[in-house]
Amino acid sequence: MIGRIAGIILHRGMDEVLIDVRGVGYIVHVSSRTASTLPPVGEACALYTELVVREDLLQLFGFPTLIEKEWHKLLISVQGIGAKAALAILGTLGPDGVSRALALGDWNAIKAAPGVGPKLAQRVVMELKDKAPTVMAMGGALTVDTAPSDEVIEAKPKTPKRAPAPAATPKTNFTAEALSALTNLGYSPSDAAAAVAKASEQPEATDTAKLIRTALRLLAPKD
To answer: Where is the segment annotated Domain I (predicted)?
Structure first.
């Protein structure tokens, strides 16, 4: 399993990047959102990767964070959603948008991704709504050492000698902490996830405690 690629960018496309790692070029497929954030050709980058193996094809898919990689793995578990379709969804919504869409059952948001029709979007929401809280709860647990990697890149004299580590998920993850608190209070993971997703859109939900209070108001029985 190739879990991480770090090296010098040789080529950037709309949905892929060619990375030189000590003289070996790896083609890594990325979402349009990730592609737009990569440094220019000739500079160092690093991505977490997932190797997809088929009978006649090996493909690497790259992600700037581990939480985004987990969302991709969850999306491709749905029949009809391949690795590239999952990238399209992530590229359109971002990991936070995917989280909200699944928690709220918003298949219209999923349908906005290129190549995803309404029936497939509905299937994604139907199959993953109850599974989404598991990934949401990972949150800050998916952190890594953000120190530079030890590999030395020799591609060009002016390029950095150390490839930066991918951006880590923040250690303080309000969504994950609020979700954990609500489930500990006895709410079902799906109800808690939906309330947290709605509450996170409110401007006053600026920390864990405020997010929990806002979510609790949403979960309170209506008269």
So the answer is: 1-64
